[in-house]
Amino acid sequence: MLITALDEMQRWSDTARSASKIIGIVPTMGYLHDGHRSLIETAARECDAVVTTIFVNPLQFGAGEDYERYPRNLERDVAIARDAGTTVIFAPSRQAMYPDGYTTTIDVGPIAQRFEGTHRPGHFRGVATVVAKLFNLIKPHVAYFGQKDYQQTLVIARLISDLNFDITLRVLPTVRESDGLAMSSRNVYLSPTERADATVLYRALQAALEAIARGERERLHVEAHMRSVIESVPTAQIDYVAAARAETLDQPDVFVPGEKIVLLLAVRIGSTRLIDNALTTIPYDSSST
User: Fold this and answer.
1) Ordered structural domains, the chain, with CATH
2) Is 221 an active-site residue?
């Protein structure tokens, strides 16, 4: 079922809830790939009904970003979502979501102000605003997001907590191509040469993970491993490389054993901006166990 009207979406959700159905939501901006498919398939296994949203949200694009050229193909997306097990595809118009005179936005605070927040001012304000609207319209019990947008998942967790949404957040692992490249709708922008170069993000993450496994604890050294790998590819331009505490994104000088950390990358390959990340736990030295 394809729904485009906000009031129809609310009526459907009210009916599903009154029938005691567990509703899962998979928010997307469309141009679906196997990462989205994985989210929808998991939601379909765990919930009675799944709503996949398709909306290219203008509020999360800054000046000079790719809102106008962001890939769109609703017919293709509907087919993929249905095949993956979605119950409803919700694809509202920009005018419906942000009618004339719309002014309200949501700012979740410090967790949104570093890394992506620094390089894309206002981005997470747009994300939080549209997700809150989707939560209010669809009234889901469970929300499914991918780890690839790691900082975004922290923003959504803060939104759910601070605004008392009665929603469980499920964050699923990043789905990758066979050569390690994280699946992204923006991968379509890459030329064949750039597509090959883009694997440098995954290789940089692996280099840092290997350094940590060998005993590296100093944050700047961990980041230097990622930076050196990326800088070996001429088409790659770094927005940021970072190692941080996974829950807070704080960046101590030295990580301690048992600490869960996240490695974060934002890199431009030619004109295409890609992000990726990896989670790990600082191991205990064998001599101390």
Assistant:
1) 2-172 (3.40.50.620), 185-278 (3.30.1300.10)
2) no
Q: What is the pTM of this model?
A: 0.93
**φ, ψ (nearest 5 deg) of residue 169:** -95, 125
Q: Are strands 142-146 and 168-172 parallel, antiparallel or unpaired?
A: parallel
**Tokens standing for residue 222:** 């961990």
DSSP code string of 98-146: S-TT--------GGGSSTHHHHSTTHHHHHHHHHHHHHHHH--SEEEEE
Q: Report d(CA 106, CA 125) in Å as an integer.
A: 6
Alpha helices in the chain (DSSP H): 6-18, 34-46, 74-84, 94-97, 116-119, 123-138, 150-162, 192-197, 200-213, 219-231
Contact present, 250 and 219 (Cβ < 8 Å):
no
> Is the CB of residue 49 less than 8 Å from the CB of residue 88?
yes
Encode pLDDT of 211-265 as tens digits.
999 999 999 999 999 999 999 999 999 999 999 999 999 999 999 999 999 999 9
Task: Select which of 36, 123, 221, 225 is catalytic.
Answer: 36
User: pLDDT of 92-104, one tens digit each?
Assistant: 999 999 999 999 9
